[in-house]
Amino acid sequence: MDASAMTGALMIALVAGAILGAAHLASLWWSVALLRDGRTILGFSVQALRFVALGLALAFIARQGAAPFFAAAFGVLATRALLMRRFRRIA
Questions:
Q1: What is the pLDDT averaged over residues 18-44?
Q2: How far apart are alpha carbons 26 and 46 in whole angstroms?
Q3: Rg, the chain, Cα only
Q4: How many other β-carbons are positioned within 10 Å of the β-carbon of residue 26?
Q5: How many alpha carbons lie under 13 Å from residue 46 in its C-beta half-sphere?
Q6: pTM of the model
Q7: Cα–Cα distance between 57 and 72 in angstroms, integer?
Q8: Measured between alpha carbons, how far is 67 from 9 in angstroms, rounded to an integer?
Q9: Do residues 82 and 76 make contact, with C-beta atoms less than 8 angstroms apart?
Q10: What pLDDT does 86 receive?
């Protein structure tokens, strides 16, 4: 794979990781709201599903190689950091 194709693949993995991170944190918000409202079984189900979905997505990306995996993981962590800073005042 040439350098431009590798750069493109890493950018796609980074964006995919950012989307995964945003979805992961949005579902965390949802599961906490469900638990707060007394919908315990659904809240824990959403909690389990979000971990499984993120794990499977990252495992699929890891099968593409170490570099795409690290780019996706960085996307997840960067999104987490941005959203935590953005919503720090709300919590």
A1: 94
A2: 11
A3: 15
A4: 12
A5: 17
A6: 0.84
A7: 10
A8: 9
A9: no
A10: 84
CA angle 48/68/11 to nearest 5° reads 105
pLDDT tens readout for residues 51-86: 999 999 999 999 999 999 999 999 999 999 998 888
What number of residues does the chain have? 91
Tell me how far apart the alpha carbons of residues 91 and 81 are, in angstroms, rounded to a whole number.
15
Q: Is 75 within 8 Å of 15 (Cβ atoms)?
A: yes
**Which residues, 6+ apart, have CB-to-CB distance to 15 below 8 Å?**
75
Q: Give the other-Cβ count within 10 Å of 72's Cβ.
A: 27
Cβ–Cβ < 8 Å for 47, 29: no
Place of tokens 């194709």: 5
Q: Residue 89 CB: number of other CB atoms within 10 A?
A: 6
* Residue 44 to residues 40, 53, 73, 84, Cα–Cα distance (Å): 6, 14, 24, 22
Angle subtended by helix axes 40-62 and 3-36, to nearest 10:
170
In single-letter form, the type of residue at position 87 comes to F
